[in-house]
Every structure is written in C-alpha cells, then in structure tokens.
Amino acid sequence: MSNTEPLPNLGFGLGLRTDHYQTILADKPSVDWFEVITENYLVPGGKPLYYLDHIRANYPMVMHGVSLSIGGTDGLNFDYLRQVKALAERIEPAWISDHLCWTGVNGVNLHDLLPLPYTEEAIQHVANRVSTVQNFLGRRILLENVSSYITYSHSEMTEWDFLSAVAERSDCLILLDINNIYVSAHNHDFDPLVYLHNVSVNRVQQFHLAGHLNLGNIIIDSHGDSVIDPVWSLYQAALHRFGPVSTMIERDDNIPSFEELLAELEMARKIASSLRLAA
Ligand SMILES: [Fe+2]
C-alpha cells in the first residue's frame, strides 16, 4: 500500500442524493462535504457524472460503497475494484469506505449487508482481503459496522472486539455508524456505551448518523426518518471518546427538503461545539 498518511477531518457532511442536485448547484449550501454512493456513479457518462463533477468542483467528497462484500467467500471482484479506482481518480475522494459484511455467495447478490460470525478465522479472512483491496487501491479504506438482526451461535467474541481486531490486523480505518450501534444494541440487548468504549480510538475516521424504524421488539435501520434523541446522546458520547471526527447524516428514504437536512446537521455541529466549550 502506498499511502498511510493521516486523513483530514472534513467537518459536517451529508449524503449526496439526486433529489438535491439542483439545490446544491444553485444555492451552494454550507455543507462541509458530501458522501456519494460509489455504485451510483460507476457509469460511462450522462447525468450522474455531470452532477457529480459539478458538485465536486465546490465540495470535498468521500466515496461510500455497498458492493465490496469484504467478508464474502467468493473471490474479490476486480472488475468492480477497477471501476472504483477509476472513479476515485476522477473525483479524488478524501477516502473510500464500504461495510464490514458479506453480501452474497456463489455469485448471487443478496442485496443486503449481512453480519459476519465474530471468529478468529473471519478476522484473518477479512484482514487478508482488506490488505489486497488496499494494495490495489493504493490507500487505506474505511469499514463500517453494519446494523444486524441475527447473530451466529459460533461467534467467539463481541462485535466491537471483532471490528477493532479487523482494523488492527489489516491496518484499515473505521467508519463508525452511531445509529447502527444503537439499532444492534436494541436488537441484541447490549449496552451501546460498552461498544463505544471498546473500539480503538485511533482507527475511527468517520461517523454516520441516521434515523431508523422502531417496531418494538426489533429496530430496522431504515434511514427514512430523523435522528432520534438517544442516538444524539450516543453521538455525544462518541465525540467525547473519539474527539472531533468527520460526521455525516445518512438519509435514503422519505427524503426531506435540503433545509431540513441542514437543520439536522446543525444539531450535530451544536453538540460537537458544546463539547469543545466544555473541554
Ligand atoms: Fe451507515
């Protein structure tokens, strides 16, 4: 791998969504950066790349993928990775992220981000694949903790120990999704603060915040609503532990006006600055 330089703190960002292309281009709103879904721009041309290039001219960007399947047992998809690398050369993202999960087997894509068994064998398997990906891309990647609805009876450790071990073993960074911790803590009955306090501090490069759907006995990570107060509290605890970390809000369903997302992002800024005042 050629680049292990420290990555910048980008501040407070939003996900780039088609509904807001025109507003962003016309108004140049005060968002520090945008996260783009990598797969939306793996196309030869047309409107997606037009908007991407024009918005990139005004804002830093990071690329966030859903297709790497870093925990899968099928071979890594080098055709996909070549496209990711080409897109990265085009928009020069501050970093590239994907998820600590598997998404299919035997060439069948299950279109879901599925959790892994938390075993030593899985750590080694993922770490080997992360090293290959990082060498190919010439940079460290970020892996995100996914929300989950199942566990494996043969897991040997906690999710937080697994996540930290993968990051240490493969020298990758972590995209810590605060809402996913809240969702999984509810679904699997663990204390989200214990999760936060056991993730390696120097590996966390980015936070995700999002809303979810609470069905009572289970919470679904829907990204279709505002961030709820307990997740804001968890975000505050995360800032306290990890310090200032680039933060963005994910919204993929029931997309509101851009102003509404800006107001939500302002909440993140306020929490972060109140901690700085208290420091
Ligand atoms: Fe996320």
What does this structure look like?
By secondary structure, the chain is of the alpha/beta class. 40% of the residues lie in helices and 19% in strands. It has an 8-stranded parallel barrel with strand order 1-2-3-4-7-8-9-12, surrounded by 4 helices. Strands 5-6 form a two-stranded antiparallel ribbon. Strand 2, helix 2 (47-56) and strand 3 form a beta-alpha-beta unit. Helix 4 (120-137) crosses helix 5 and helix 8 crosses helix 9. The mean pLDDT is 93. Fe (ii) ion is lined by residues 144, 177, 180, 208, 250. Residues 144, 177, 180, 208, 250 line the site of fe (ii) ion.
Q: Could you say which small molecules are bound to this protein?
A: fe (ii) ion
What gross morphology would you assign? globular
Indicate the low-confidence ranges by residue numbers.
none
The number of strands is: 12
* Major sheet: 8 strands, parallel, barrel
Computed CA radius of gyration, to the nearest angstrom: 18 Å
Mean pLDDT: 93
Please work out how many helical segments DSSP would assign.
9
Q: What topology, given as strand order, has the largest sheet? A: 1-2-3-4-7-8-9-12
Structural class: alpha/beta
SSE string? EHEHEHEEEHEHEHHEEEHEH
